[in-house]
Write a structure and sequence with these properties.
mainly beta, 11-stranded antiparallel sheet, 8-stranded antiparallel sheet
Amino acid sequence: MQKTGRLLSAALSVSLALSACSQGGRALRAPVGVRATSFRVLYRVERTPTPDQRSVVWEVLTVHRPFLASDLTFDRRPRDLNATDLGPPTSGYLSDVDHLYSVDGALVRRVAGRQPGSPSGDQALLDIAGDAARRGAARIGPVRRIAGRACTEIEFVEPPVGQLRAFDATGDHDDVCVDRGGIVLREQWTLGGRVVQTRTASAFAELPAVALGAALATGNAQDVSDAAAAPRIGEIGDAVAPPTPPNYALVSAVSFFFPRPDDPTTLAYASKVWAFAHGAHSITVEAGAGAGLPWRPEFDRAIRLGARDAAWIVRSDGVEVHFITRDGWVRVRATTSLKALLPYARLVATSWDSSAAVPK
């Protein structure tokens, strides 16, 4: 597992532009704040998939942004949230900068390689709220108080995972209350007119990065194994890295291989990924090629990067700007607003040699 020492732990102060959006005649501002670097949250999760079914579990999310996290589920509430060892969970996931692990009791398995980005259970909802609202994929609600902390409620059409879609006529929605550090304090999912899941923060621990690293390092090398047809990573070879974003540092550079779901023996696409970090924030640049695009183009919104045509989308883990090259595609993703990402995205686009599919 990657060491937390590879990550930058200095906090990055980010001032997001205030954006207003109309909510039933009310103008509510998108939340602003400074993205928290290291934290642990205990959630009480109540699930009611049918009117006759109800279950309660406890979730412990431990995060050292931008790449390291564990998201573990327990049948009983852990006694000491500050403990490095919380006991064996019933299930869960761990993420380091470029691998995903599953947890079953005391057993840890390496499930797959992953593209460096926001880790298991963590998102960038604070940073993308304004852009998502302008795209019709979020509605900014009132400020509430959960577990003694203030948070801004953000409504999505469904639990925000990956690429966000606009609201539809179903009336389904997922209401997420996010504090000024970008930490989710409460989430309530309404599906088919019924609340089917409520996830509420009940306790917090602000562990130092060293303690977080120890808490996340569950298991050891002989306990993990790769799944057969899972995405995988490899050496990046002699590919030339794109420009380093100002104030960021290169953390990881890997080749990424994603198999087709219907035929794992064939690749859907292969890419090279460079991950940069600055405090709690990350920027990744991915250059790839394959049979199709790794995003849903129907959600694209056109944008210009200098002389190059491009598009942008909003995701739960950040905003993404992508463009087509002669030999494939390039996408630039960040845990920031679109406005903050654009100068660097333009730099990448103008420095790219499309004939070689690598930066100049």
